[in-house]
Amino acid sequence: MRDYTVEARKIMTHLVKCRKNRTFARKFQNIMKKYRISFAMLIAMAVLSSCTFECQKKPKNVIYLIGDGMGFGAVSSLLLSMEEETGFEKAPVIGLSETCSANNYVTDSPAGGTALATGTRTCNGFLGVSPDSVQLESLLKKAQKMGKKTGIVVNTTLTEATPGAFYAGVTSRKESYKIAEQFTESGVDVAIGAGLSAFINRPDSLDMTAVLIEKGYDVYLNWKSVLGSESEKFVGILEMSDVHRRNKKSTTIASAAEGQEVCLAAQLAATEGNVDTTRFSEPTEYLHKACTKALSTLEKNAPKGFFLMIESAIIDGYGHNNDSEGMIEEMQEFDKTLKALIAYVDKHPNTLLVVTADHETGGTGVAYKSHEVNEPEGLQLNFSTKGHTGTVVPVFAYGAGAEKFRGIFQNRELPGIIEGLMK
Asked: Is the four-CA dihedral 89, 94, 100, 101 of positive or negative sign?
């Protein structure tokens, strides 16, 4: 078959030379005759070449990793406390995101999550709705309409602000019972997190685990069942002490999750002999293992790919508490998850990984501290507030389409870029 790509390059080289000559039209015609190609074919080849180039960059799968409260101080704490290369340093594309809400330079988590989930800035306190309290459509919902499988993994409750922004719509994050109800309508394929009480210890006495089971989900209340699941549609609702180290009790024997004994999911587990009283021994390993489990589940029977939202939520807490040691350790754990996701993208090059934050917390910086030459030790962070700040946060991108995230953006712009790449 004739290599028209080479021919086109030769033609374009001649065209550039001819543009400087008054006999452009005549020479152009001679060139076309010489290579026996029509102008229409030349245009078609150019369009096809452009399309092929763009299609190669469009991701089939999208992983959206959000570090709650993760500003440059938090990222700096990781870079300066690790001798080995971090996941952030592997990212070929870095950008900045302005985190304002619709009514404040300093966003809260509900409004920040809503901007990252829907592409619309809303008022502080609002979750998944516009400043006029109108329900917004999230990236997760749009991905579902594209035929993609969807997932949520968090190291906090499934009804918290950031995950909630991808499926719920309320004017206050405190409406956890309503958010849990909206979760059962989300259509998400896989979800792993904590927060059982919002699903069962409810004022309306409803058992939302029963609702999920009726909708075809397998519902698991312990880590062992989540890891061992072969289901393609499940929800894991664990205890907070299973998903994060700072909530780990001194004993390795767990009592039943609050209210667990009365909900349908627990009853079914007991019937099937799946009651597990041994707590997951290393919560520090939870997030990256939960992500790995979600990815292995979502990639099954997913001809159109998947969309997975992940939140590392506890960075924010260490910022609020001005906890230097906790922040550094949490960022090191975040890096484990980030590296695992990068490894997944390397094996699945049709995947896009976007990493950012909903806002910065604590006004976190690196404290002045001397050390011996080339022997850094004892890194300390300092803080300017126990609240959020309005400073820009980083955006890291890796994989198919990553180059689209180079630059300075408003937080609300990121979902639109991701949606455009997913189409």
From this structure: negative
What's the whole-number average pLDDT of the chain? 86
Determine the Cα–Cα distance for residues 28 and 260; give it in Å rounded to an integer. 78
Q: What contacts 24+ positions apart, CB below 8 Å, involve 324-328?
A: 324/77, 324/367, 324/380, 324/381, 324/382, 324/383, 326/246, 327/74, 327/77, 327/362, 327/364, 327/381, 328/77, 328/78, 328/81, 328/379, 328/381
Q: How far apart are CA 266 and CA 207, in angstroms?
A: 11
Q: Residues 180, 199: contact at Cβ < 8 Å? A: yes
Amino acid at 396: F
Q: Does pTM surpass 0.85? A: no
Most confident of 96-100, 255-259, 371-375: 96-100
Q: Is the dihedral of CA 72, 78, 81, 87 positive or negative?
A: negative
β-pairing, 393-399 vs 351-356, is: antiparallel
Predicted pLDDT of residue 62: 98
Q: How many CB atoms lie within 10 A of CB 24?
A: 13
Tell me if 409 sits within 8 A of 395, measured CB to CB.
yes
- As a whole number of angstroms, the distance between CA 401 and CA 404 comes to 6
Over the stretch 266-292, which tens digit does the pLDDT of each residue have?
566 556 555 554 454 467 889 999 999
Cα–Cα dist 403/54, whole Å: 12
Q: What is the DSSP letter of 254?
A: P
